[in-house]
Amino acid sequence: MKIQTSECILSIKDVSKTFPGVKALQKVSFDVRRGSVHGLVGENGAGKSTLMKILSGVYQKDAGAGTVIFDGETIENTTPHESMHRGLAIIYQELNLVNTMSVGENIFLGRFKEMKGMRGTHTSARELLDRIDCKIDTHKLVSELSVSEKQMVEIAKALSFKSKLIIMDEPSSSLTAEELVELVKIIHQLKEQGISIIYISHKLDEIFDFCDVVTIMRDGQIIDTKAKVDLTRDEMITKMVGRSIENEYPERPQNVGATLMEVRSLNTRKLHDVSFTLKQGEILGLVGLVGAGRTEIVRAIFGADKTDGHQILINGSAVRIKNPNDAKLAGFGFVPEDRKLQGLVLPFSVESNISMASFEKFTKFGFISKSKESEIGIRQAKALVVKTPSTKTPVKNLSGGNQQKCIIGRWLENDPRIFIMDEPTRGIDVGAKYEIYVLMKAIAEKGGAVILISSELPEVLNMSNRVLTLFEGRITGEFNPQTASADEIMRAALGMTEGSANP
Amino acid sequence: MKKNIALLGQSFLRNYVLIAILALIVVTMLVEPNFMTFANLINIMRQFGPLVMVSLGMTFVIIGGFIDLSVAGTISLVAVVTVTLIDPIGQVPAILVGLGVGALCGYVNSLLVLSSGALTQAEALFITFGMSTVYSAIALMYSGGSTKHMRFLKGDTSVIEALGQGSVGIFSVSFLVFLVCLAVLWVFQTQTRMGRAICLTGGNKTAAHLCGVPVSRSIIAIYTISGFMAAIGAIILFSRITTASPVIGAGYETNAILAVVVGGTTLKGGKGSVLRTVMGVLLVILMSNCLNLLGVTPYMQVVTKGAILVLAIWLDNRTQI
Ligand SMILES: Nc1ncnc2c1ncn2[C@@H]1O[C@H](COP(=O)(O)OP(=O)(O)OP(=O)(O)O)[C@@H](O)[C@H]1O
Ligand SMILES: [Mg+2]
């Protein structure tokens, strides 16, 4: 594809980036046309985020390697501040707002003078938010906003710099389906206003929904750039992972047995009389809107939150779980919802992050054995194909998906009998998702069970043996996803009907 | 160990504060002939003992993601209690009670921090600041506000004197005590499960808790260690200056935090080492000494220390994204 430079807002040529021990980017070239939505896909660790961080000036590309031309201007040694003012905005997955300040103040952070004080700040902020049809009150504190509202504030902030290109790095990974619809609307509006967008996502449906052009990366290289209309889903997946994938989901576990765990009358401020059973060898899916109480249920079972009383029976006998350590000893594993906040200890090495739930295995008389710890780290990193130069690398240097694998590996080391997975595939590429599904299945088939929460309905429906729907803290239905329709299940999750199988 | 030294070297180069202080020392050496005298070096060694003990304890609190401002009050209280008990119960029991009081102060701090939710460094800051005044006030009430002099005591004070002034071969006793403490704490931090739990707690409390790491116990441990080490510092301090006033510990909290931060342990928690702190303590003392010799007024010295602390924290925030 040859395009005139004037048609391109961004033109990257032969850019490389090396981290100690990792060639993150090798001679990457691609162009973004003005006013287009440019999708960027690739496996975990392919180099997508790194490339974007080079554009925004967080990282510097390798010296002497390649050129970046933005809006007709060659960019060298830029800083995030400079590139923001030049009209290139980037919205990171971990949003960068000041929680204790208002929406308006955040949009014009550090520019109150230009705005002629608070009044001007808030009126201008209002205008920007109106441009994307967003109704948030500019006086509201950012800490009170939902993730999607925060994203909108970031977008308004980008608009305030008269951005010509907005990069969104996995914006949808923490959005609900409804919030995504809002985001898509905004993306279309931005496009109409002549703003270009680079959209990174592991959710291929989105890419096909609203991107004009798609670039596929693998191992730090650009594999292909194609107009969406010329691309099929299979072709895209094949180019991403370097082999073809027949099915996106393995077959679900086959041998569902007797009851393994019973939860009785779980009550908290948000949950009302939740009771259910978990059977040996099954994957149990929890479906509900954000705020329906899915995460609350699993956190309560795991001992992470206090409850107003509940009872747990495992294999028929009551167990008391007062804290996560009790849960761990009772054979639970837990992959939390928020990787950075609840899962990882970012400055620590990959192996310390993997080993931190299985101290018993590498301590004796209270002393730790570093070599045994390394063994654990290496074993799990290998089993899950974690892409890292070494297990001593700080986990914060890994790509998002590989960080998630570390958390899963941490619990697999304990051979959990009941594995709770809250959004286990968030930010994970198609290939690795499949591997995680296989792991879930293996746990179930070894006589354990998995509780799966996911905001991606197809995932729950294709992997679970049984699905529970939740609405406003109550279980509203139980379904067999092999026989029930997605529509039926969604209606129960929206509180519109009672579930058919077992009200 | 080798890796630790390499790390130390790396952080050293990146740490502008260290370089600035070293520059100050070099300048002092050049312009002030008194710096390299034997008397001055002894002087430096004397200040080293108490501060390094307090700072070693503080290192754990900071690695654990918290902070302890109460050490000033703890030191005063321990010193006063120990001194007044020498006559009635004898010196060794008095020392043991003093150490116990220090550990108890720390333990009480940890319970207060835990009961407040133990969420942020800010809460710990206010709680331990409050407790510092409480401990100081108890010290004042206990001593009736008067300063105790060791030479007016009737009981035997040989052990205490040895601690502050005695020596074995070329090493002073307090230096040997320091080496033992350093070795024990270093092994504790890097080789034990509890030490790791403390580091993980500092790195990410929520994640650690969800993995079954004993977060509450880690918090109790760091404050108790800090109180205990402050008590050792207090006894060495008292035996060195042979008097114990109820405000003897004032200023130790800022100096200890300064030493820990200048040594390169991050205030954000999780990462750091007691070895770095030793270097930080040396630098802080050398800096005070240089400023003294250069004739900088005490007020300006306080300003300088404050500025360096702020600068160190600022640099730390900028280098770790
Ligand atoms: N600061 C860093 N230091 C060392 N290596 C790094 C650093 N940042 C990224 N890397 C490495 O560069 C490679 C590319 O990472 P990048 O984050 O760009 O991947 P990605 O395509 O965004 O993946 P994901 O979809 O999982 O987010 C990875 O192998 C990662 O480990
Ligand atoms: Mg990424």
Question: Would you kindly provide a written description of the structure presented here, covering whatever features stand out?
Answer:
The complex is a heterodimer of chains A (503) and B (321). By secondary structure, chain A is α/β, with parallel strands linked by helices. Helix content of chain A is 33%, strand content 24%. Chain A has helices at residues 48-56, 80-86, 103-107, 117-131, 147-160, 177-192, 204-210, 233-241, 294-301, 324-329, 339-343, 350-355, 370-383, 400-412, 430-445, 457-463, 486-493; strands spanning 8-19, 22-33, 37-42, 67-70, 73-74, 88-91, 165-169, 196-200, 213-218, 221-227, 259-266, 274-279, 283-287, 311-314, 317-319, 332-335, 363-364, 367-368, 418-422, 449-453, 466-471, 474-479. Chain A is globular. The termini of chain A are far apart. Mean pLDDT of chain A is 87; it is low at 499-503. Chain B has 321 residues and is mainly alpha-helical. Chain B has a domain at 35-250 and 265-272. In chain B, 77% of the residues lie in helices and 2% in strands. Chain B has helices at 2-14, 16-31, 38-63, 71-89, 91-115, 121-143, 158-165, 173-191, 193-203, 205-210, 215-241, 252-263, 274-293, 298-319, and strands spanning 148-149, 167-168, 171-172, 243-244. The longest helix of chain B is centred in the C-terminal third of the chain and has 27 residues, at 215-241. The model of chain B has no long low-confidence stretch (mean pLDDT 86). The interface between A and B is medium-sized, with 27 and 21 residues.
